[in-house]
Amino acid sequence: MAMFSQNPLMNGPNYSFNEAPRVNAPEGARQHRFDPYTDNGGSTLAIAGADFAIMAGDTRLTSGYSINSRYHPKVFKIGGTTADQKDATLVLSVVGFMADGEALKEKLDSICKMYRYRHGKAMSVEACARRLSIILYQKRFFPYYAYAILGGLDEQGKGAVYSYDPVGSYEREQCRAGGAAASLIMPFLDNQVNFKNQYEPGSGEGHALQERERRPLTRAEVEILVKDAFDGAVERHIEVGDGLQMMVVTATGIEEIYLPLKKD
Amino acid sequence: MFRNNYDNDSVTFSPQGRIFQVEYAAEAVKQGSVVVGIASKTHAVLVAIKRNAEELSSYQKKLFPIDEHVGIAIAGLTSDARVLSNFMKQQCLAHRLTYGRDMPVRSLIDLIGDKAQVNTQHLGKRPYGVGLLVAGVDERGGPHLFEFQPSGMTEEMVAFAIGARSQMARTYLEKNVEKFAECGREELIAHGLKALKESLVQDRELTVENTSVGVVGVTGEGAKRVVEPFKVFDGQDVAAWIEAVADDKEGGDDAEAEAGGDAPAPAGETMEVDE
Amino acid sequence: MDHRPQNWGRPRDDVYGAYDGSYLQSSGPKQATQSPIVTGTSVIALKFKDGVVMAADNLASYGSLARFTDVPRLRSFAETSVIGFGGDVSDMQYLNRHLTDLSIDEAYAAPSSTDTTTSPGAGTLNAANLHKYLQKLLYSRRNNFDPLWNQILVAGLDSSEAPFLASVDMRGTAFTSPSLATGFGAALAQPIMRRYAETDEQAAQLSREEAVKIIKECMKVLYYRDARSLDKYSLAVVTKAGVEISEDEQLEQQSWAFAERIKGYGTQTV
């Protein structure tokens, strides 16, 4: 019926398409909204020891069911004087949306470099940890979609691990897993690093049960623990695999270790 | 009070076509203690005399690292130099972040040249009161040495000296200019220190307290390219070098040494109108 | 019958609804690309001993319409790198202009333009530098909610003159691998390429001829199975010596015999 109304404005395009009536949809509903985030999978893990800290991450980069790359590091040295980070003392791991994660890494690294330039010394892990929190919170309403973990040695030379959520909440911990397989690895860590749910055999029942005595793990133990954690995660999570990259922070520097993981 | 009516600001030419404020800024460079820079095919070195305000005070820094492949030596107002140094540091960081490479030294110099020129053309601004020697390496021809003047003039040099009594150092450099290209790291530092000695007043000596040495280098090309990052050496680290050039008196060119202050500064020349 | 000339030849409003002219609105708030319009499909690339091979077909599709059949989607940069574009073609053309400007600026600054003793592009941006730059560009555009709707492959040599191949997408996600493919290629071509070059070490065993053969094979598989593809394509090889791009390759030795047994390809109706 409407097409016979002879009223071009009501009935269809006039001389200009601009004068055509809008469709009866709310503004913007036609448009496919651009989603600025993706999840690139992968997992990270950090454990603090008495005089060392180990940061680890798998090297697979995914989008959906595709493996984009089998070697894409998630663990980075931070705050060296040169681009090759030979004299760095801190390590940052990021997982989640890698473009944000890497932007975060580069921002923190620039800040550490400016700090060194202005103060003539490297940034302490405590200071860097606070600064990282601030960087994350500054983008509270368009967050870096990345789960960060910062590792290093504190002023007493003890291993330090700081973990973050994407908007900057942080705390210092003994160990932390992040990313796709965090929920698979974290309970294993609770049990193996913090000795949760481990009791002295035959010490009784109920309240009489005595917890197993906690002791700091040695570096060799932790390295095995990290590999075991990732081997487990690879079996049960499709986004984790290909390679395991570990950075061991000690007083003498940062040692990098690469171990293969299953590529399936 | 004033030398003339045309030096109240940096936007007014004198009838002779000069901008006095800019020339005065060039004079500030000559107040600073001397710095020498030399580039060879593999290295660029900066050497400097540090001054202490009085016996009990510390020595004013003269060499600053900018990025791993660039360093500067300053003569003039240290605080102005810090502004430029910060700016250069930021630019190098930004370039590295954007392209993942060392910033080409020429690009960096052009930036500070443009920045300084703006100060010579706007009312209410003041030219920088500092001159720089910039040493760096990049993939565009290896080591480079650049001179920067408050006028905004920048020029690539084989070897150069700026600062108080620097004419004597330049005379030494001019005499030996042919040798520099083939010099190794240690030879180049030795030449730098010898040039520096020429500029010292009668009873002064190079000491571990007052001497600074900065070195940056590059060897090989393509896959085999290795950069020696810019590093400043002070104190006991320079003792051996000073020892090596001590009292060998091989130069003996006191005869033609001129008084540094009277020589026309390059900056003055560039500000003159071509005829 | 609608007799007004301005309506002749247009879809009938009573059948299709009124034309939505808001697409053509030039006033109002600035509009960012919200979805790609004219698009290119897969780009594939594979490293070999002394360089990288890359290919992409010459088709620019308008939805399911094969709209433009002569649009090369590979370009060289400063005689040192090859860039391949998937995704929106207008954004590709914007980037193309931008990169041309960048390469001109670089050519003026680098000494190699006058010095013939150095290898091509010495002192100018290499493929790794260029990839980093494009990553920053695309990431900053996504931060402004004004993305460049492309996935890009960059091939060439890095600062140590080793073959370099990397990808960056519209969100700024960047990664490298011995072989890479965008779009459908990620599902169809990547498994074939990985059979020959799972690791960099394996890729370093491939000769140029082998790599070209693998890429041509992949282009054929893509043409068989990707409905938005074309049998005319561009092929680029980048080595230390420079860049060679051929923009009028034709898929050879096609065999559609397999299609007869597959529903949807031929004339079968059941």
UniProtKB/TrEMBL annotation, chain A:
Any one cellular-component term (Gene Ontology): nucleus
One Pfam match, given by its short name, reads: Proteasome
Q: What is its main location?
A: nucleus
The record, for InterPro entries, names: Ntn_hydrolases_N (IPR029055), Proteasome_sua/b (IPR001353), Proteasome_suB-type (IPR023333)
Instruction: List residues traversing the bilayer.
Output: none
Q: Which GO terms describe its biological process?
A: proteasomal ubiquitin-independent protein catabolic process; proteasome-mediated ubiquitin-dependent protein catabolic process
What SUPFAM superfamilies does the entry give?
A: N-terminal nucleophile aminohydrolases (Ntn hydrolases)
For this UniProt entry, the molecular function terms from Gene Ontology, in alphabetical order, are: hydrolase activity
Compartments annotated for it: namely: Nucleus
Q: Name the keywords, alphabetized.
A: Cytoplasm, Hydrolase, Nucleus, Proteasome
**Protein name from the UniProt record:** N-terminal nucleophile aminohydrolase
Taxonomic placement: Eukaryota, Fungi, Dikarya, Ascomycota, Pezizomycotina
Automatic annotation (TrEMBL), chain B:
- Where the record annotates domain Proteasome alpha-type subunits, the positions are 6-28
Q: Where in the cell is it found?
A: Cytoplasm; Nucleus
- Reading the lineage from the top rank, the first entry is Eukaryota
**GO MF terms, alphabetically ordered:** hydrolase activity
Q: Which Gene3D superfamilies match?
A: Glutamine Phosphoribosylpyrophosphate, subunit 1, domain 1 (3.60.20.10)
Q: Output compositional bias ranges, type Low complexity.
A: 260-269
Quote a single Gene Ontology cellular component term.
proteasome storage granule
Alphabetized InterPro entries for the sequence: Ntn_hydrolases_N, Proteasome_alpha, Proteasome_alpha-type, Proteasome_alpha1, Proteasome_asu_N, Proteasome_sua/b
Q: Which keywords are on file for this protein?
A: Cytoplasm, Hydrolase, Nucleus, Proteasome
Spans annotated as Disordered = 246-275
GO biological process annotations for this chain's record? Answer: proteasomal ubiquitin-independent protein catabolic process; proteasome-mediated ubiquitin-dependent protein catabolic process
Family that this chain belongs to:
Belongs to the peptidase T1A family.
Cite the record's note on assembly: The 26S proteasome consists of a 20S proteasome core and two 19S regulatory subunits.
Question: What name does UniProt use for this protein?
Answer: Proteasome subunit alpha type
Q: What is the lineage of its organism?
A: Eukaryota, Fungi, Dikarya, Ascomycota, Pezizomycotina
Automatic annotation (TrEMBL), chain C:
Q: Which InterPro entries match?
A: Ntn_hydrolases_N (IPR029055), Proteasome_beta4 (IPR016295), Proteasome_bsu_CS (IPR016050), Proteasome_sua/b (IPR001353), Proteasome_suB-type (IPR023333)
List the Pfam families hit by this protein, alphabetically: Proteasome
Which Gene Ontology cellular component terms are annotated? nucleus; proteasome core complex, beta-subunit complex; proteasome storage granule
Q: Does the keyword NAD apply?
A: no
Q: Which GO terms describe its biological process?
A: proteasomal ubiquitin-independent protein catabolic process; proteasome assembly; proteasome-mediated ubiquitin-dependent protein catabolic process
Task: Note the Gene3D superfamilies from the entry.
Answer: Glutamine Phosphoribosylpyrophosphate, subunit 1, domain 1
Q: Which PROSITE patterns match?
A: PROTEASOME_BETA_1
Q: Provide this UniProt record's keywords sorted from A to Z.
A: Cytoplasm, Nucleus, Proteasome
Q: Which PANTHER family match?
A: METALLOPROTEASE TLDD, PROTEASOME SUBUNIT BETA
Its biological purpose? Non-catalytic component of the proteasome.
Protein name as annotated: Proteasome subunit beta
- State the organism of origin: Coniochaeta ligniaria NRRL 30616
Question: Which lineage ranks, top first, belong to the organism behind this chain?
Answer: Eukaryota, Fungi, Dikarya, Ascomycota, Pezizomycotina
